[in-house]
Amino acid sequence: MSDAELPVQASPEADILSALGGRSIVLVGMMGVGKSTIGRRLAARLKLTFVDADTEIEAAAGMTIPEIFERHGEQHFRDGEARVIARLLEGGPLVLATGGGAFMREETRSRIAAKAISIWLRADHDVIMRRVRRRADRPLLQTPDPEGTVTRLLTEREPVYGKADLTIASREVPHDKIVEECIETLHAYLCGPPSADIASAVR
Ligand SMILES: Nc1ncnc2c1ncn2[C@@H]1O[C@H](COP(=O)(O)OP(=O)(O)O)[C@@H](O)[C@H]1O
Ligand SMILES: O=C(O)C1=C[C@@H](OP(=O)(O)O)[C@@H](O)[C@H](O)C1
Ligand SMILES: [Mg+2]
Q1: What pTM does this model have?
Q2: Distance of CA 38 to CAs 34, 43, 76, Å?
Q3: What is the CA(28)–ligand 1 centre distance, in A?
């Protein structure tokens, strides 16, 4: 049989893309769980555009996030964040990494529910602390007690992150393992179990 005659093989990635239609995949969760790094890799796997909401906010404001917080305050940042995410969700399908506070706003959660599949990347306090210590670009953690701040934010936020469609445990395994779990979990959620025909064909 020539290559042209071979049957087209369905792949989990192709199945996911077709089930998404115009919807996006949105990563939510606490600072340091891996939304930006995992999101970029997940988008590459699915051949979708990757957008980081924080980067878009910085571009729109012409300032870094620490500068926005310092000059205009958190409330101003949050309003800009909600607007940027609303705009990005109109342009799907894409993989969107949100900043850790974005999903706390009800209006943003409703928009995400209408236009996307949301994945909560969930990590333990200690994993988060190890990862966020490496950089000083998260203004909320520039406090005398970043550990206490992370504990408080996790208590406030975890029940809300739990409203995401899917949850993946982000832990100290290679990034690509987490990406693989995102693909498997998205596939099961969007496409269901393999049909008996396909299951027997691949046996
Ligand atoms: N599975 C992982 N294993 C090891 N390090 C990770 C993993 N996922 C993310 N990281 C690291 O944690 C740090 C924070 O990740 P980032 O994607 O910026 O998180 P977020 O966008 O959720 O704040 C980065 O240095 C990243 O490489
Ligand atoms: O948790 C938060 O409130 C924030 C998380 C940051 O993004 P990451 O979650 O990508 O670090 C960034 O949006 C800002 O510093 C505020
Ligand atoms: Mg990020």
Answers
A1: 0.93
A2: 6, 9, 27
A3: 13
